[in-house]
Write a structure and sequence with these properties.
Largest sheet: 8 strands, mixed
Helix content: 25-40%
Number of helices: 14
Length: 495
Amino acid sequence: MRLEGRAMAERVPSDVEIVIVGSGFAGLGAAVKLDEAGRPDYVILEKDDALGGTWRDNDYPGCACDVESYLYSFSFRPNPNWTRTFARQPEIWDYLEDIADHYRLRDRIHFGARVVGAEWDGSRWEVRIADGSTVRARFVIWGTGALHVPSIPEIDGLDRFAGTAFHSARWDHSHDLRDRRVAVIGTGASAIQFVPAIAPGVASLTLFQRTAPWVLPKPDRPISDRTRRLTARFPVLQKLIRWKLYWQHEMLVAGFLNPRFMTLIARFGRRCLDRAFAGAPALKAELTPTFTIGCKRILLSNDYYPTLRRDNVTVETGDIARITENGVVTADGVEHEVDTIIFGTGFKVGDGMAQVAVTGRGGVKLVDAWRDGSQALLGTTVAGFPNLFLVVGPNTGLGHSSMIYMIESQLNYILDALRVVDRHGATAIDTVAERQDAFNAEIQSRLENAVWSQGGCVSWYLDEHGRNRTLWPGSTFSFRRRTRRIDPADHELLV
């Protein structure tokens, strides 16, 4: 049984220095760093009844990280107890629970506190919670990230389906899949994990694929007891492993920024297809990607391709026309009878902040400031919204390495901003709009020739205007260098 922090029954303080929204990696990391900096006057507002963010919500069968455990963890809290090179969801969630316990954060977390709005009154933020209560705070650190609003496509007839339907990030564990006829819609990072996990136990599984992804082998293996003992006794060994993994991942940056360098990886991916579907040319053709590798997220799996060759698994590449009471109808008129539909269709990356009414200086709403696309300075601050800091904001995502490294970089930046405000006796710090515009023009210019803008593919990296508002176009160490401290020219202090 997982322990809980403060429930909403114990009222959230009405006035604090800092509000942290969310209790995943970003929120917990912010809390640890605030305590280290001697700023204990904060609360963590969590909408759910448990901490963990993405790793609480995504508990589908087979859920695991696609970045190595030693790298996908805080540098200040290495974990010698990982049991696999790529940790699975329960272990990552346990790791976050350990962070809360080790740093005594539970008493700072208020569960069931869903933030619905925040308004700047000229000196402080008034943060509104769904139950009607408010918290006044000098600073707000928004740590909810981008991957927490499930995306379910609008398909005609879905509301009339007589069976059970759910999204992978809202897995219905009460629904027994044994001997069920299952439809899986989507072939993204979640689907390639849960499809192999559930396929052996279902009567049939029809995978509705719109675009064939690039899938490469996952170098996953158990971590031996001996290795765990050694890394616990000699922490420097784990640091060396982490250092090695970090630079291995950074070598991929050149390929993402110059698509010509992806040729070797694409060649390897095709060889993997050839081996997996030897003797099954028709299935191989359906599963061969038609876009430049890296344009969409590269997926890692050892059991996805073998699963698609099972007798009870069918890959359907026709467009979905509608859903009936009894199944899924494709554009050719064929009805695929199923009693369960599982959506592996990802998240609404740009909608997380859009669901909250955030109002800055002069009554400007964030949704209006971002009408032409979300943008921020270094993914962290937004012009016109003083003392508001985003963690994993626009253009901080990665296609090659660990987001925890990016989160720690942003937290350094935020702490420096707080120090600058204190040192100058200011009320707040805001971002100069022209500097933000120049930064985002630079980012979009660098993205134009990157792999994510090539190859004719459309991905969740791009917004409705075709702009990549998701990914950082460079190395993680270049981002860390730019976030080591704030540039005074980028900001103005309000007194």
